[in-house]
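Form 7-S
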Amino acid sequence: MAGNKYIANNAGKLREVAAAQTSSGVGDANKIVALDASGVLDISLMPAGVGAEVVVKPASENLLAGDFVNFHNNAGTLNVRKADASTNAKPADGFVLANVTSPANATVYLISGQNTALSGLTVGADYWLSTTPGVITATAPSAAGNIVQRLGKAKSATEFVFENQEYFELA
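Output:
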């Protein structure tokens, strides 16, 4: 969606120009910016050091927007895969906001990030990592060998605040 437009002076002539909603760097210097379709500034418009805490690593499997993920050693290289409460080897370390096809790089959002790629959440409800890879559940896992990892609380039906808490394995 194009941002709001403004009138600019171009060599003495007035011209309508769309405000920038993303930045590709120096070429966008001195442009007026606009909020994106969700009402926020795109991270590309922020100065270095300001923004979400993220890690970019290759995905060792296909990921869907909203998936909770686990960092793991893949032949000496740190990769990401879907987190899974059915094993203590795959606790949630973060989440992704975009689909990723393996082996492309995934942008993983870490602690205190807001996962806005979910739906059907209950406002104020606590959620745990599910035994279904990549997803959360309103009911903590209960089978022997599962891990119980509370991941956070829903702010709205589509916003989840990830808290990345410690987990324990059920006997």
